[in-house]
Every structure is written in C-alpha cells, then in structure tokens.
Amino acid sequence: MCRRDRRRIIAIVTGVVVLGLFPSDAALAAACWQAPVDGHVTDPFREPPCPYCAGNRGLEYQVGVDADVRAVEAGVVSWAGTIAGTRYVVVRHGDGWRTTYGRLTASSLRTGDPVGRRGVIGTASGSFYFGLRVGEEYRDPAPHLGQLVGRPRLIPLDGTAARLPPPPRLRCLATR
Predict the structure, then answer these.
(1) Are residues 50 and 6 in the same domain?
(2) Model confidence, pTM
(3) Which residue of 85, 118, 138, 173 has the lowest C-beta tally within 10 Å?
(4) Tens of pLDDT, residues 88-135
(5) Do 39 and 16 fall within a single domain?
(6) What is the residue range of 100's domain?
C-alpha cells in the first residue's frame, strides 16, 4: 500500500469518527419526536448567558396527576436517581444525544436499562422537566418535537355508521 492510499484511508476513518462524535446540523434537524408527556409547556428553553448563570436548560410542562412519561427515542439509561429529592432519568440515544426526564414521581428504571421508543420512563404529577444535551451542550428540545395531527375525513349523512378515523400522524417541523 502506498503512502497516498494510507493517507486516504486515514482521512476517511477520521471523517467517520468525527462525524459520528459531532452530529451535523442536518442530523440535528432530522430528529422528530412525539412529546414525552400530554401537557402544555409552561416555561420554554432559555439559554443561560454563561455555564453557571440562570436560565432554563429544557422545557417545563404542566401535566395531570400520574401522567405517563414516555421516551422520545430508544436508548439506554445512562443515569437514574434523585438530586435534592427530585427524581431524574437520563437516556443516551444511539447518536450520542441525551434526553433528561425530570420531576418524576415514580420510575423503576436503573442505569443500564434499555428503553424503547415511546417506552414508559415513569410518571409525573403537576410539573415535568424535559431536556436535551448534545455532547455537553444543552439544546432547545422544542424544534425536535412534532405534533400529532388527525386527517380530515367525510362523515356519512345518510345514517350509516362512520368508519373509524385513521390514526393521527406525527407532523414535524420540516413538514409544517
């Protein structure tokens, strides 16, 4: 093998490793998830001006009592526990992204447990936190959340029973 071929191989391997560790903006835009809970956002992401400054590093939701919290994507629990009496579960996904599910009232997950897409993380009551980290950087998860949308359909007027509607589809930011 000549020196030029070795350089090409090294360049290709380096490119694959770098692209795998640092997702491109196209990869960041490609994620489209269903929201982890049924609820509404009460406090959106607010990037802090410095690493230790005030801000909101995720989304705060208002939810009902014992609302199911579901994983937005498949992964492995990289951390589960409590901090200052508040229960959190962090899931690492295949692309290296980490999603944080916080203010849980209950969760049976432990570090190392696999989680499927839309798998139950636990439950939350009243307030729920959802965050996203890419590497060590906190990102706004809102652009990655799609919206379930039902399709319009005709209803018979002649008294016959209406067909069941098709399931709603997840409409993502790119298709809005």
Answers:
(1) no
(2) 0.75
(3) 85
(4) 999 999 999 999 999 999 999 999 999 999 999 999 999 999 999 999
(5) no
(6) 33-148+163-175
